Amino acid sequence: MGFFDFGTIFFLIAAVVIFFQLRNVLGRRTGSERPPFDPYTASRTDKDAAQKQENVVSLPRKRAPGEPAGDIYAAIDAFAKPDTDLNKGLRTIKDNDPTFEPKTFVDGAKMAYEMIVMAYADGDRKTLKNLLSREVYDGFVAAIGEREAKSEKIQSSFVGIDKADIVSAEMKGGEAHLTLRIVSELISATRDKAGAVIDGDPETVAEVKDVWTFARDTRSRDPNWKLVATEEED
């Protein structure tokens, strides 16, 4: 029994000594310690922070009244002769949309032109809806519907664009309007239900001249332009 009491006391003393040693080494909790490190949460937080940083885009500001113009019109003056109505219209659009560049617009309009022409031939309403104003879209869809009701199909092949020139530019309220004269080459033929050609020629490249007007609300963050008017030049 004496041996048992001695052993018990020995282990109790050892436990107390070890406790105080650990306390000195590890310290006591004060409530202000950093939370345990979680590698998954940490990596995700770093990634989110990086994405937020990448998503910060500095929008170009509008020129204040009386502020020197500098070279902001240089691209416009190189594109359209200064003091002409076209140059003045392009400058007005630039004043309302500092990101506007005429050459960039023409390049985009040429791509949109091909997409619209081919989407109309294919009856692709989804593509047309993204590129046309509501009024123009309704007109295109009505024509497609009439064609489908007669089981007619357009066989079309886009060859290319020979010329695309801005002929007028103006602001209508907060909307920028740009009209282009586009000369393109297209192989197109309309076939009836039996497959007979009823319009056009599937073997001949035809020159097509169009006058199209694109518009964009410069007050909107949406950078896309939409086709708002079409006219076929004789």
Automatic annotation (TrEMBL):
Q: Which GO terms describe its biological process?
A: protein import into mitochondrial matrix
Stretches assigned to the Tim44-like domain: 86-232
GO MF terms on file?
A: protein-folding chaperone binding
Gene3D superfamilies for this protein = 3.10.450.240
Q: Where is this region: Disordered?
A: 31-55
Q: Which keywords annotate this record?
A: Membrane, Transit peptide, Transmembrane, Transmembrane helix
Per the similarity annotation, which family is this? Belongs to the Tim44 family.
Q: What is the protein named?
A: Import inner membrane translocase subunit Tim44
Q: Which species is this record about?
A: Mesorhizobium metallidurans STM 2683
